[in-house]
Specification:
- The complex is a heterodimer of chains A (about 260) and B (about 400).
- Chain A has one domain: Rossmann fold (3-Layer(aba) Sandwich).
- Helices cover about 35% and strands about 20% of the residues of chain A.
- Chain A contains eight helices and eight strands.
- In chain A, helix 6 packs across helix 8.
- The two termini of chain A are about 35 Å apart.
- By secondary structure, chain B is an alpha+beta fold.
- Chain B folds into two domains: about 220 residues, 3-Layer(bba) Sandwich (FAD/NAD(P)-binding domain), CATH 3.50.50; about 130 residues, D-Amino Acid Oxidase, Chain A, domain 2.
- Chain B has eleven helices and 22 strands.
- In chain B, a hairpin with a 2-residue loop joins strand 7 and strand 8.
- Chain B is globular, with a radius of gyration of 22 Å.
- The chains are: A alpha/beta (about 260), B alpha+beta (about 400).
- At the A-B interface, helix 3 and helix 4 of A face helix 8 and helix 9 of B.
Chain lengths: ~260, ~400
Amino acid sequence: MTMQADPSANSSAASETTVDRAEIEKFSKLSQEWWDPTGKMAPLHRINPLRLQFIRDAACRKFERSVRSLNCLADLRLLDIGCGAGLLCEPFTRLGAQVIGVDPSASNIAAAKLHAEKAHLSIDYRCTTVEDMDVRERFDIILAMEVVEHVANVGLFLDRCAAMLKPGGIMVASTLNRNWKSFALGIVAAEYVLRWLPRGTHQWDKFVTPDELARHLERNGLGITEQSGVVYSPFADKWSLSSDMDVNYMVVAEAVG
Amino acid sequence: MTTQQSIVICGGAFAGLALALALRQGLGAGVPIVVADPALANRPSRDPRATAIVAACRRLFETLGVWNEVAGTAQPILDMVVTDSKLEDATRPTFLTFTGEVEPGEPFAHMVENRYLIEALASRAEAEGVELRATAVTGNDVRPGGVMVSLADGSTIDASLLVAADGARSRLRERAGIATHGWEYDQSGIVVTVGHERDHQGRAEEHFLPAGPFAILPLTGRRSSLVWTEKRADAARIVALAEEEFHAELEQRFGLHLGEIKALDKPRAFPLHYFVARSFIAERLALVGDAAHVIHPIAGQGLNLGLKDVAALAETIVDAVRLGIDPGQPDVLERYQRWRRFDTMAMGFATNTLNVLFSNESALLRSVRDIGLGLVDRMPPLKNAFIRQAAGLTGEMPRLLKGEAL
């Protein structure tokens, strides 16, 4: 999920008719990898229900919907930035949202399209970046989950997101804090000891503190209305929300004043 | 809203119907819920057996809106007596008595006749929009994004998940290649309903006789339901006896404390066994109730264990679907399995230990267990803990068993 545009992006983008069989097999394998809860993406699958719940609950509060409704996001336009193979896009589509998933990796987008097709879900997947999107597009919900720590320019990235947020819309972001603890857990433990993530997945100096995030958002007239740490408990093998925002954390931002 | 894939439940007894109802209430009309079972053609059920419903499960039925339907025919167990004796003993010393309330006004268990409860579940499920199909599941073809379920009437259903609630000899479990681990007890349980002259005052009795437990469970209207354990050969002999001879065997064990007694239906013997499925899940398949496990009836926990599966699976599925997650996805099913399989093994182990401890004639074991029971009887906190355990109120409780709606 890197946010630097992939140079191969436009060449192999998924206009299915022109993609050859070997390519389709490659994407289908990639899509299986993404969607296998016991495979390479296992850590993401483990944390996914918690992310879904945090986002759904924030949206339901903001748009006054019931979390018990299977259609709680109906008629809401949702943008998922860095969507990968659609682990957030598919669930939110089922809950009624009109979902646009963007990712700079053409192969991720192809994998996402293949999977959505099998699940009979209609999702607008685009191989692009926020910077390259039409500035006139507007969304009720914008998601930047595990993305800001990968972008080249956090300020610019958040400016563009804020510009596409409808008045009364919400933005949800998750990332890694920058301190000694996030270095120990987010890099040393996750990439070297537990090997949840490939080495080099994260660069610690690109991690973003909640204060930095808040400052960028504030400049765009957005305030953080909710924030929560996300912690892993090894005994229960379970992620949960916590007031401890030292390593992984999520925020909800909306227009203030 | 587009209608999502169905959830198909194979088996229309307690577990299957309760699950269907719980899912329907938790998910609403967006996810079609289908129960398939040829036995649904023979409604109302004529099952002559009765079942002990412990407090946690009564709360589940109350939350599902079926308890009121059966409350009038349910007999609360107001207290319970446990004795340890040989068959020829003239008096049976009491080692343990429970006055059975988990909360003031809430008995730790009720005796309910199966036919009433099954009909209440079926009609409620139907009224709330569960599709009841009086036909068998003949095939389940897993494909990307779901499972195609074929029924004996020739139709097919595109489902996200198939649930095997098809009993101890589950065909679906077998077809999925899930092995079971367990053994046969050289015991059968004789089940018979007995009428008696005097009122039982809501008292349940469990006599640990050398051949195994002999339980007298109170029903409404001066009747009791018996679970009477014997060696398999003896059980077969006893149920085949002529009426008068059977009566003599019955009276020797039942005693005369409730006056004259009379068997009200034909006694039937069920061979006892124990097993736990090696896995409670497979691709797009989850096992619940007897399909997943059968335990010794010594502590009356079999159905309760099954209803705990139902409550846990319903909660897991409803929580997933409300997050837009495909409920047949492997990690969702894994969550259910983790929640239930350990608890089931623990209960299987406990009931097996009880049976080994009590179903024998060893004088040494007898004094050990009597001292143990005597101690428990004199220690209120310990006794209380046993009652709560027996009432199903321990462990990580699914919301439905706490009486909370999903």
